[in-house]
Design brief:
With about 475 residues, the chain is α/β, with parallel strands linked by helices. Helices cover about 40% and strands about 15% of the residues. The chain has helices at about 10-20, 30-35, 60-65, 75-85, 95-110, 120-140, 160-165, 170-175, 205-220, 245-255, 310, 335-350, 350-370, 400-415, 440-465; strands at about 40-45, 45-50, 55-60, 115-120, 150, 185, 225-230, 260-265, 285-290, 300-305, 375-380, 385-390, 415-420, 420, 430-435. The strands form 3 sheets. It has a 7-stranded mixed β-sheet with strand order 4-10-9-8-7-5-6, sandwiched between helices. A 4-stranded mixed β-sheet has the order 1-2-3-13. A hairpin with a 4-residue loop joins β2 and β3 (about 55-60). Bound molecules: pyridoxal-5'-phosphate (PLP).
Length: about 475
């Protein structure tokens, strides 16, 4: 099929038929797909193009991941060149691009880290659980049996059974329960607009951290291997914690001998205005999961980055069996690593983290103008990770119906703008989310705000009913 010729409706119809008869799509209902088809064939910058010629401004960078923007053909050349040299060999051996990528990761973390490569964010977190447990097994004091992960309700950490168990989204995991044993223990999240304790910052005195500490004490500190935190929660509808939250959690880790495991799968690689979100808060994680922005989704690669204190625990004589007890066939894939290396160089050359900080403020200022609408309860976020929560009533914060949120998303799409909505617990599914490529321009941001404004003007009154 030629994509350079004018689109042929018959060809499009044939592809849609071929797809619907053969593909099982993730998380979308097929009956809805039949009505709302998108056959993507091209993209550039922040814009994606359907085969029928329709262009969409993608305010979600795919699945929060195309950080350097679409259409960087030099990355295709780099992948091809690497594949002509050596496309694959297991990472039990070394290869040039993966060694360079791990060195870049170490540099971005300020030194003192080693990197284990996997293929997706879920695997990066899974490897993190396993590394935490194995580390604790090596290092724990007599009488301790550290295997539990403390995580938060409404968090999303991936789609495998363990990462679902670690996550706190009932509707995502309900169909697969029961999930494992008691190794994932949940605590309240710092969702300040809807504080789980009904309190307000700062008079709350971080009740969520107090709750975390009493949970650790109740579970028995000697059973806790790690605390897992997405610094700025994405899936719940964007939750930026108070500045003292992450340092306070890091202190709990130190106090109780737990590792601090941060999930930067979305937060990382400039998304929040710094290379990593934990860097806003002056903490140093023991374990960090990254994916998405590490390669801006040009090829699949992800990583679990560990502090050298953790890495050192895996050293010893062969017979001591202290080595990482897992292998991922495609881990450290040379072509994916080569593309990730160049992706990070592009981010640095074009100062995309700084750009995300500046344009994030600009975007946020635009969102704030929408607070004039009766149904906009809150706008929040950091850098280019932003949310707008829709409520029927600003005082009661009663959420608008799911159908009304869907109508707003559909309105934007009809206007050529793709936005997201929170998939977090049903209580929070009423937040519109924005996570565009970090190369988004101010005029594109203006366009998004304008489309939202018109949508809220048209649909807002119905949402209150
Ligand atoms: C915070 C977070 N962690 C982990 C994951 C899982 O990543 P993947 O879909 O690459 O397995 C996601 C995916 O969206 C995520 O948002």
């Amino acid at each position: 099929m030629s994509l350079t010729n004018a689109p042929d409706p018959e060809i499009r119809k044939a592809v849609v038929k071929q797809d619907l008869e053969n593909v099982l799509h993730p998380i979308v209902q097929h009956t809805a797909l039949e009505k709302n088809q998108m056959v993507v064939v091209g993209a550039q910058g922040s814009t994606v193009r359907d085969y029928d010629g329709t262009e969409y401004l993608d305010a979600m960078a795919g699945l929060w991941c195309v950080n350097i923007g679409y259409g960087r053909t030099e990355l295709a050349d780099i992948a091809a060149e690497q594949m002509q040299q050596i496309a694959y060999y297991p990472h039990t051996a070394m290869n040039f691009p993966a060694a360079r990528l791990a060195e870049q990761m170490n540099g971005l973390m300020g030194g003192g880290y080693h990197t284990y490569f996997v293929n997706s964010g879920s695997e990066a977190n899974e490897a993190g659980f396993k590394i935490a447990r194995q580390y604790q097994r090596h290092e724990q004091k007599p009488g301790a049996f550290r295997y539990k992960t403390i995580s938060r309700y409404y968090a999303y950490h991936g789609t495998t059974l363990s990462t679902l168990a670690a996550g706190g989204m009932g509707e995502r995991k309900g169909k697969f329960e029961p999930l494992g044993g008691n190794e994932f223990v949940h605590v309240a999240a710092p969702t300040c607009y809807r504080c789980p304790f009904g309190l307000e910052y700062p008079t709350c005195e971080l009740a969520c951290v107090t709750n975390m500490e009493s949970t650790i004490q109740g579970e028995g500190p000697d059973s806790i291997a790690e605390i897992l935190i997405e610094p700025i929660m994405s899936g719940v509808g964007i939750a930026v914690p108070p500045d003292e939250y992450l340092p306070a959690v890091a202190k709990l880790c130190e106090k109780y001998g737990a590792l601090l495991h941060v999930d930067e799968v979305i937060n990382g690689f400039g998304r929040t205005g710094k290379m990593f979100a934990h860097q806003h808060y002056g903490v140093k994680p023991d374990i960090m999961a990254v994916a998405k922005g590490i390669v801006s989704a040009y090829l699949p690669i992800a990583a679990t980055v560990v502090k050298n204190e953790v890495f050192n625990s895996f050293l010893g004589e062969e017979a001591a069996m202290r080595q990482v007890m897992q292998v991922n066939t495609y881990g450290g894939h040379p072509a994916a690593a080569a593309v990730a290396v160049r992706n990070i160089e592009i981010m640095q050359e074009e100062k995309l983290a700084e750009r995300a900080a500046e344009n994030g403020k600009y975007f946020m200022d635009g969102l704030k103008t929408l607070l004039k609408h009766a149904v906009v309860g809150d706008v929040r976020g950091k850098g280019l990770l932003l949310g707008l929560e829709l409520v029927k009533d600003k005082k009661t914060k009663e959420q608008v119906s799911s159908a009304h949120v869907g109508a707003m998303v559909a309105f934007c799409k009809r206007q050529g703008v793709i936005i997201g909505r929170s998939g977090g617990g049903s209580r929070h599914s009423n937040t519109l989310t924005f996570s565009p490529p970090l190369v988004i321009t101010r005029s594109e941001i203006d366009r998004i705000i304008d489309v939202l404004d018109r949508g809220l003007t048209e649909l807002g009154p119905q949402m209150q009913a």
